[in-house]
Amino acid sequence: MMRYWNCCHRKTAQSRIFVFVISAVILLLIIAFGNYAIKSFESRKEQANVIVAKTELDSKLSQIKNYIGRSTTITVNIEPYKEVCFVDYEKSSFPPVKISSTLAKSLIEEEERTSRKDNALLISDEGVEFFHIDGISLNKKVACLKAENGIVSIKAEGRGSSVMIGGSI
What percent of the chain has pLDDT over 70? Predict the structure, then answer.
């Protein structure tokens, strides 16, 4: 009788240990995949912020084009970016371009040598994001505007087929 009791008691203890080990492995897998999912969501959020900032800039500037002679100041949330720059490749480089980011300045010079001609830049600590906005014109080659709390104010004037950024406002 004692032998039977020890045998069954050992099997019960072994099965409990087995269940504990399996539970621990499952818990570790859940934590690992959960951490991966959170990082993936953060990355997608950053990508969405870029798309939202580009779209909002483009749509607000496009709306002003149609109001010929109308001057207005638009505000755009460009968070997480700190600065937005517009480039008019038709203008000369004199006087020299003043941009706070040396990376952005070198990228504009490189962009000028290529045929792509993206004319808008979003500048952050992590880097520069180039894109194209149709129908913008400037009084000078480059106009850069710093954001305050993620919001940038842009003075613009409608010209029919284009919008003058920092125009005669």
Answer: 76
